[in-house]
Specification:
The protein has 2 domains: 228 residues, P-loop containing nucleotide triphosphate hydrolases (Rossmann fold), CATH 3.40.50; 115 residues, Nucleic acid-binding proteins (OB fold (Dihydrolipoamide Acetyltransferase, E2P)). Helix content is 25%, strand content 35%. The chain binds adenosine-5'-triphosphate and magnesium ion (MG).
Length: 359
């Protein structure tokens, strides 16, 4: 297995006379045998990034390392990696067997070796029964497995996946996601997986790298990204509904005020706050707002009952907040309730820079 590193990668495209700056100094370490997910909204440069690693796109500047070697001038076929493209690109006119065998065929591998490998890899991905079918006779999930089988057949230390599950329906996606994670744990292949889907990132990743405005905004364990977003942009990007961000003022390290409400900052947070006074933003996730407790008065404006939970859209003065109630049988619109925002999970951000204030 192999580690990968990107050092200060820049990449722009010229389209007619317009320049699109896509990657603007991407630096990222991808540890060996781990599952790294690069998460970004659509159009932020995920495909570009993965194509730069594969060597299908040449960066304008910066270095790509595979292992300890700089591969800037190494052609794709010599980078010893496999890639599954955003649209799979399996050949519709070939059956599953020939699709999977293709990389070995063009490498002129002996026939019996090809046969052995196709059987091995198709068994591993549980598509051994489908070898004589055409792609049009497969479900989306099966097609995706054919694409992965083809990527794995030559034996690879590094697998690049570009939103491989985006064409699947929700149920299949959940299934395929679990399979992929299990496969990675078994093979210990280094995986770089790009997606705009935060659930995929949370579930699959050993580390998540968030790409924003051409740079890596935060790299961390998925739960750390969720609990301790580095800045308000990440806080808003992750979570559904996203983190509530409330502008107000720190009166001292123990008290945050917005409108007429004073929020007690839990000691675990106040003792690590770097700045103890002045304008600030308090971040709290919807599930951490306690309902029918505390002394902040909120009005229920709108509700989304999802079965296991209910999303409450609340208004406190001029501020809108989302909360999640796990047990709430009857909800009256325009009713005033009490909420408690003084939770151990709150995060404080600098109001000018948007950066998290603690540690
Ligand atoms: N060959 C190209 N010529 C000009 N512009 C390009 C080219 N390839 C990509 N772009 C632009 O670069 C930006 C990033 O594209 P990219 O495909 O990397 O984004 P993405 O994050 O993969 O998006 P998506 O989630 O929709 O797949 C987009 O604005 C895109 O239009
Ligand atoms: Mg893309």
């Amino acid at each position: 297995m192999v580690k990968v590193a990107l050092k200060n990668i820049y990449k722009s495209f010229k389209h007619k006379s317009k320049v699109v700056n896509v990657l603007q100094g991407v630096t990222l370490e991808i540890p060996e045998s781990k599952f790294t997910v690069v998460l970004a909204p659509s159009g932020e440069g995920k495909t570009t990034l993965i194509r730069v690693i594969a060597g299908l796109e040449k960066q304008d500047s910066g270095d790509v390392y595979i292992g300890d070697k700089i591969v800037n001038d190494t052609p794709p076929k010599d980078r010893k990696l496999a890639m599954v493209f955003q649209n799979y690109a399996i050949y519709p006119f070939m059956n599953v067997y020939d699709n999977i065998a293709f990389p070995l065929k063009i490498a002129h591998a002996p026939k019996d070796e090809i046969d052995k490998k196709v059987k091995e890899v198709s068994k591993m991905l549980e598509i051994g029964e489908l070898l004589d079918r055409r792609p049009s006779q497969l479900s989306g999930g099966q097609r995706q497995r054919v694409a992965i089988a083809r990527a794995l057949i030559k034996g690879t230390d590094l697998l690049l996946l570009d939103e491989p599950l985006s064409n699947l329906d929700a149920q299949l996606r959940t299934l395929a996601r679990a399979e992929l994670k299990e496969l990675q744990k078994r093979l210990k292949t280094t995986i770089v997986y790009v997606t705009h889907d935060q659930t995929e990132a949370m579930v699959l990743a050993d580390q998540v790298a968030i790409l924003h405005a051409g740079k890596i905004e935060q790299v961390d364990d998925p739960l750390i990204v969720y609990r301790k977003p580095k800045d308000t942009w990440v806080a808003k990007f992750i979570g559904n509904p996203p983190m509530n961000l409330i502008e107000g003022e720190l009166l001292d390290e123990k008290t945050f005020q917005f409108e007429d409400n004073k929020i007690k900052i839990p000691p675990s947070i106040s003792k690590i706050l770097k700045v103890k006074k002045g304008k600030a933003i308090l971040g709290i996730r919807p599930e951490n707002i306690k309902i029918n407790e505390g002394n902040v008065k909120a009005t229920i404006k709108f509700v989304e009952p999802l079965g296991s939970e209910t999303i409450l859209h609340l208004v406190v003065g001029k501020i809108q907040l989302d909360a999640i109630a796990f047990q709430m049988h009857t909800v009256e619109l325009n009713k005033e309730i009490n909420i408690d925002l003084s939770d151990e999970s709150i995060v404080m951000f600098d109001s000018k820079t948007g950066m998290r204030m603690e540690n």
